[in-house]
Write a structure and sequence with these properties.
The chain is α/β, with parallel strands linked by helices. It folds into 4 domains: 104 residues, Methylthiotransferase, N-terminal domain (Rossmann fold); 110 residues, Transcription Regulator spoIIAA, CATH 3.30.750.210; 115 residues, Transcription Regulator spoIIAA (2-Layer Sandwich), CATH 3.30.750; 54 residues, OB fold (Dihydrolipoamide Acetyltransferase, E2P). It has a 5-stranded mixed β-barrel.
């Protein structure tokens, strides 16, 4: 099984994997040894479409006998295009439902070698993703997600609590709540328990060591929500997609906030949450984006001091209103602007990381990156590496941050560090 794109896709694939393991299946490490290959596709950009097609072709080449199944957003949006590839046996939009399980099982359980986990659904992961809702009705002018995912709908609070408790019982130290637009979470529809109540219940009724939120909008950062960061188990990390630092372009994108509202939300959150890291998404080369709009966006990102900026060149998506807007930007200009914004992203990330040099921080260790060097993340999502001869996966241990390292930080293990 493989997943492309967002954390929501990853959460769905993880949930499906857990379900299949309980039914007696074994997850393999490669398409070449599998009886069934499942790809949870992404369609957010034309590059995502291309990566989906490439992965499916690669799986077919690696294993002509395997049953190849495409699911997810690209499969929902463009099933005919996938069918024309000639390499996919089954195309299903629903990435978790009974129909997909049936397609995987075919005429019986698929058993194969190369067990990746421990047979109980713990695939060597320390962080687990839990879907709390999906879908969106905003219809931003550039975005195809509402067409692929449909309108917003939420899982019940009891379902989510049960899943988080199960993840904790199986050894996961961190849970990430994810969805298309998690700020619109409602347990039983409009007017019922929302995201703040869900977070309170998870913190009160489960023993999860870390709870992280995947992505929010500025309007979601109410005082009620911000005050929940008084709980040190709620990770001080916010992903707030900006998309553009120009009010003119934000209006053309149909984004539901102004720069002033975005900046006010950032300031309120930073005032209340210690060591907060704020990450964002920036779309460059949107139709009608003039040089002055780009410069304004560049300046806004520079002064905001993001911990990480994910930069995307605008990708025309058929069916969206932006696809037919005048003022489409030349690919060469998009590339130049992307390059400048990515250079700023690297500088901004280094500035944020430098604040923590000399500090002692707790890291949830995830994997060996090379040799005796382990990597993991702090609560505010800084990537840290440190040397250790011991197995650290899944442990929460303190390190002293000593220097910059690659795109993260290098730490020294602290004796007596807390193991969560």
């Amino acid at each position: 099984m493989e997943s492309l794109g967002c954390k929501l896709n990853q959460a769905e694939t993880e949930a499906l994997a857990d379900r299949l393991v309980r039914r007696g299946h074994v997850l393999t490490g490669s398409a070449g040894e599998a009886d069934v290959y499942v790809l949870n596709t992404c369609t957010v950009t034309h590059i995502a479409d291309r990566k989906s097609r490439q992965a499916l072709r690669s799986a077919r080449r690696a294993n002509p006998q395997a049953r190849v199944i495409a699911t997810g957003c690209y499969a929902r949006r463009m099933p005919e295009e996938l069918s024309r590839l000639g390499v996919v046996d089954v195309i299903l939009g629903d990435a978790e439902g009974d129909s997909l399980v049936g397609a995987i099982e075919g005429n019986g359980h698929a058993q194969s070698t190369g067990l990746t986990g421990d047979g109980t659904g713990n695939w060597g992961r320390t962080r687990s993703l839990v879907k709390i809702q999906e879908g969106c009705s905003d219809f931003c002018s550039f975005c195809v997600v509402p067409y692929a995912r449909g309108p917003g709908r939420s899982r019940t609070l009891d379902e989510i609590l049960a899943e988080v408790k199960d993840k904790v019982a199986r050894g996961h130290k961190e849970v990430v709540l994810t969805g298309t637009k998690i700020g619109e979470y409602r347990s039983n529809g409009h007017g019922s328990a929302g995201l703040p109540e869900l977070i309170r219940r998870i913190l009160a009724e489960t023993e999860v060591k870390r709870l992280r939120l995947s992505s929010l909008q500025p309007a979601d950062l109410t005082l009620e929500l911000i005050m929940l960061w008084r709980h040190d188990r709620l990770c001080p990390h916010l992903h707030l997609p900006l998309q553009s630092g120009s009010d003119t372009i934000l209006r053309q994108m149909h984004r539901p906030y102004s720069l002033a509202e975005y900046e006010r939300a950032v300031c309120q959150a930073r005032d209340a949450i210690r060591d907060l890291s704020i990450t964002t998404d920036i779309l460059v080369g949107f139709p009608g984006e003039g040089e002055s709009d780009f410069e304004e966006s560049h300046r806004f990102c520079d002064r905001t001091g993001f911990a990480r900026i994910h930069v995307f060149p605008y990708s025309k998506r058929s069916g969206t209103s932006a696809a037919t807007m005048p003022g489409q930007i030349d690919d060469k200009v998009k590339k130049q602007r992307s390059s400048r914004m990515m250079a700023l992203a690297r500088r901004s990330a280094r500035r944020f990381r430098s604040q923590f040099l000399g500090r002692t921080m707790v890291v949830l260790w995830e994997e060996k990156s090379r040799g005796d060097l382990w990597s993991g993340h702090t609560a505010n999502y800084l990537r840290v590496c440190a040397k250790s001869d011991d197995g650290l996966a899944g442990k929460m241990l303190a390190v002293r941050i000593v220097e910059e390292y690659a795109d993260g930080l290098l730490g020294e293990m602290v004796n007596g560090g807390y193991d969560g």
